[in-house]
Amino acid sequence: MKLYGYFRSSAAYRTRIALNLKGLAWDPTYIHLTRDGGEQFKPDYLKLNPQALVPALEDDDGTVLTQSMAIVEYLDETRPEPPLLPKSPAERARVRAIAQAVACDIHPLNNLRVLRFLTKDLGLSEDDKNRWYKHWVETGLDAVEKLLAGHPATGRFCHGETPTLADICLVPQVANARRFDCDLSNCPTVVAIEQACLEMPAFSSAAPENQPDAA
Length: 215
What we know:
The protein is α+β, with helices and mostly antiparallel strands. The protein has two domains: 2-82, Glutaredoxin (3-Layer(aba) Sandwich), CATH 3.40.30.10; 89-203, Glutathione S-transferase Yfyf (Class Pi), Chain A, domain 2. It has nine helices and four strands; from the N terminus they run E-H-E-H-E-E-H-H-H-H-H-H-H. Strands 2-1-3-4 form a four-stranded mixed beta sheet, with helices on one face. The chain is globular and about 50 Å long. The chain starts with a strand and ends in an 11-residue tail after the last helix. The relative contact order is 0.15.
């Protein structure tokens, strides 16, 4: 199994966490998103992922997968233990809703290519770009906090006492929020869940600062 990723990519971070939780081994291939105009645009990589995004996962049988959410659910279906989604449809829907609140509503607005377009193409200043980033991340995480706080299904993790797809998405987004000095004071439940996750080696070893290409 081969994972194409970049240490700071939230989506690659999600995939590393899932692989770790499943106890799977993989060979990393590093795709630097800013060096030489972005290695994701090189022809060899575009053959794997025409979107020029990370991650991409090549399974043992040669199957190539893109999009972190699809990859994580593929791993859960092909390597079902430990499960990353609950059993009941209603519980699975809740976990997916929390995960998608991050992956579909927060993350796309602060993705590297969006931030780059704001400054290089629209001419926004670094301060304006950071205002954009903080606004959408803080607004989004405040909403996630409301989804989690006081809900009977919320436990040590987003849903119960074991990590799920929701935690896999939440932790990388909080890491990015911290990197940009976002205000998390309104998100005590989010922060508590993040800390519980980072106590697990599957999460902490997947963190950007612990990747070889972070050097």
